[in-house]
# Entry
Amino acid sequence: AFALGLILVVVAGAELFTGNNLLAMAWADGKISTRDLLRNWAIVCGGNLVGAAGLALLVFLSRHPEMNNSAIAQEYLRIAVAKVAMPFWTAFFKGILCNVLVCMAVWMALAGRSVIDKAVAIVFPISAFVAAGFEHSVANMYFIPLAMLLQTFENIGVTANTVTWVGFFSNLVPVILGNIIGGSVLVGLVYHVIYRRAPGQNQNA
# Structure
């Protein structure tokens, strides 16, 4: 599901906060201002929050989590509990590692000439971050609100008093900061330095 989400973003031309951390390359090259960079990140992050929370509401209303005697709902809650209980620095560094892989997936997808090329380039890095349990801010904007809806309005047999809006933002803040460092610094600015050319130097030099 995570890989499919990024494929849809890249192929359909949507905006994803974590992928847009690569705009740090344009900022470092002087093509956009600091204000433009931060404005883009703020707008896209806010839009992603609305979209992810909206999707969580749709999934809740579909009653999909109630399948298998609410086993799916219980798993959503288990995931959310683990996320909100995560220490600040653990979430931060997991956020860094996650967005290194996400931005590498976007970077490689840009080299693809066909939809298949782009899809294949995306699948492996995204599968790696999911398997490793790294933290993606936009994914958490979906998981934790959905868990809050389920425990508030459905009898799923388990509850967790830590899965609240306070718990949500205590996870989201370090993960967003980590995602920014991983994507903009460790991928975007590193590649900017690698490919930077002296003024007036042509591509064939």
Notes: The chain has a mean pLDDT of 91. The two ends are 43 Å apart (CA to CA). The CA atoms of residues 95 and 179 lie 5 Å apart.
